[in-house]
Amino acid sequence: MKIERFNKLLPLLTFATLVHFYLAWVGTLPSQVNPYNDVSLYGSWMQDLVNSPSSVVQIPGISKPFVYPYPAVAPMLLAFVVGGGVTWQTTLTAWLVLISIANLLAVAALVRWGRGSQNAFAAAYFWLVFLAVLGPVGLGRIDSVATLLAIFGVIALQQNRIGSALALFTMGAWMKIWPVALAISLFVADVRRRLMLRSAAFTIAAVLGLGILLGLILFGGGVAELLGFVFTQNNRGLQIEAPAATLWLWFAKLELFESSIYFDQGLLTNQIAGVGAPEVASLLTFAMVIAIGITIWLGAKAYRFGADSKTLFAVMGLTSTLDLIVFNKVGSPQFEGWLAVPIIAGILFEVTRWRIAVWLALVVALLTNLVYPVTYMDLMGLGWLSIGLLTARNVALVVFLVWANLRLKQLGDKRTHNVVLD
Question: pTM here?
Answer without folding.
Answer: 0.94
